[in-house]
Amino acid sequence: MYDSRTERLAETLVNKCLEAKAGDRxxxxxxxxxxxxxxxxxxxxxxRLGAEVALRPGYGSLNRIAVSEMPEECLDKLTExxxxxxxxxxxxxxxxxxxxxxxxxxxxxxxRSTRRTRANAPVFAAMRKISGPICxxxxxxxxKKAGKSLDQYADFLFQACEYDWTEMEARLNAGMARFxxxxxxxxxxxxxxxxxxxxxxxxxxxxxxGNMPSGEIYFSPxxxxxVGHVAFEWPCNYRGVQVEGVRLAFREGKVVxxxxxxxxxxxxxxxxxxxxxxxxxxxxxxLNPGIQIYTNNILFDEKIGGTIHLALGQAYGQGNQSIIHWxxxxxxRQQGEIYLDGRLIYRNGSLI
Length: 352
Hints:
Mean pLDDT: 95
Number of helices: 11
Helix content: 25-40%
Structural class: alpha+beta
Strand content: 25-35%
Low-confidence stretches: none
Largest sheet: 8 strands, antiparallel
Number of domains: 2
Order of helices and strands: HEHEHHEHHEHHHEEEEEEEEEHEHEEEEE
């Protein structure tokens, strides 16, 4: 679909998030054909600036076909064109416009997906070295997952991306201050009592410079410090696969027990991807008051005001190392508390 607000969103991505300039080499990754209008708008702006642009189709259907159909011996081979492309680039933009699930090829066996992911570890490492925003674009599939019509979802998406980011920066800085100087974080909620340490770890505020929309603060916990258990009531999506009713138990930082009501085989296979995939790479707090509903899209759901999220795998900055990064969201608005060194700093969705 095309919407006149697409041009404003492109300006936000290129000028605010990316801060693009002449001579930049930018990869635009597109996850489905419906996002082409936003790609075109970004391409137009980047070309006017004198940047070089390359398009990388990241369609889920193509990945499923490749992983399902390639010979066994090819699963463990590096995708060299992707590696060369990321080594060429200086920045990137990802447009998430997924294809309809009903039209997608069947999922490949989880063990095949895990092998393919391992083989492309150098690609993910090269990708992490270049920065850039991820942004969704209204599609029938995203609207359906959010329980909205396409027009309703478009209004929701564009409004969320047109927030007053100066006000948001002040909000996030105040939130970050609540954790200043602390060490042990303990999260208490329904079926959840989990703790980890954050003293002197990397910490970040998403204030409209990176992913769009923004509105979270996040930390890279000390990987070996996580203990306890956590339950996620909302679906946990990763690479196009929806896993429901996830339950995790940690000991000495590592996930030692894992279960799911739906998609358990995929969960367990992903946890065995590499040595770091069973450790926490991120603890985040959603603080965007303009996003209040769960839409089954991590770009929005991790920013919901009144939620926290934990990510298994790769940390931001220094911390746990892995080729996966799987965010899982927990709603804290009805029954949730966060303690810092034994002191209550957050209750039922609000910092106190």
